[in-house]
Amino acid sequence: MVPGMIRITRDDINPGKILEEAEASTIGALVSFLGVVRDDGIERMDLEAYEEVAEEELARIREQAIARFGVSHVDIVHRVGMLSVGDHIVMIVVGASHRKAAFEGCEFIIDQIKESVPIWKKEYTADGSRWVAGEHE
Amino acid sequence: MMISVRVRAFARYRELFGERFEVTVPAPATVRDVVMAVEESNPRGMGELLDSGGRVKPSVIVLVNRERVTGSHRDDHPVAGGDEVAIYPPVAGG
User: Fold this and answer.
1) Mutate which of A6, A8, A53 to test chain B, going by most B C-beta atoms within 10 A?
2) Per-residue confidence (pLDDT) for residue A137, from 0 to 100
3) Do the domain assignments include residue A137?
4) Does any domain span residue A136?
5) Does any domain span residue A1?
6) Contact B91 A120 (CB under 8 A)
């Protein structure tokens, strides 16, 4: 079994800790992606998930990445709840023997998350609120 | 005979129709029957889920018992009493 974890959490993500734990099981390359709330003139952002299905979908994406790129470690952690500018949204860590598999696996995972995992963002500005449109309408 | 179906709605649809509720539809029921009952539960939601021809809009994602229903016949997919039907708009996570 490939080490790593899947988590949907209301707690902040600690990138250093996740990387450190991934390092223990990885020899070769470790690629990480950290999504952060952008300053688009928003005051805060509320993330909502269909948690049971989102976890199943993340597990499926993780297995696909392992099968497709032969990676040896995968962590996917996604926040839900109210976030502010600069807060962590999502962290993906992919370990592999060589950098190419780790980079490709990591990109594949974030692309798949944006396409199929039931998570939505509502942005709050000084003027009101709006749902962020998906990239795959 | 009427059956009761559990519905979960997310994001914009949750705001319009509620987070968890039940709808009652005549058996045998389909995805389209359930979605129509949901849409009719709030006059402000008219046109959100069904197109002018009464078909479920392609942008509305539908799951029955946590399994996504896709394909050209998804409107006719059967729904039984006690099933959980989830509806949500295109996802925007990551």
Assistant:
1) A53
2) 65
3) no
4) no
5) no
6) yes
For residue A8, give the amino acid letter.
I
Q: Which residue from B59, B88, B94 is facing A50, i.e. has the nearest CB?
A: B88
A33 closest CA partner among A96, A97, A89, A72: A89
Strand B84-88 and strand B67-68: the pairing is: unpaired
**Could you tell me if A136 lies within 8 Å of chain B, comparing CB atoms?**
yes
Fold of B2-88: Ubiquitin-like (UB roll) (3.10.20)
Count of all residues that appear for chain A in the document: 137
Query: What residues does each domain of chain B span?
Result: 2-88
The domain tally of chain A equals 1
Range of the domain at A83: 6-131
This complex has an ipTM of 0.93
Indicate whether A41 belongs to any domain.
yes
Q: How many Cβ contacts (< 8 angstroms) between chains A and B?
A: 68
pTM above threshold 0.80:
yes
Considering only the beta carbons, identify the residue of B63, B89, B91 that sits closest to A117.
B91
Please, which pLDDT band fits residue A134 given cuts at 50, 70 and 90? confident
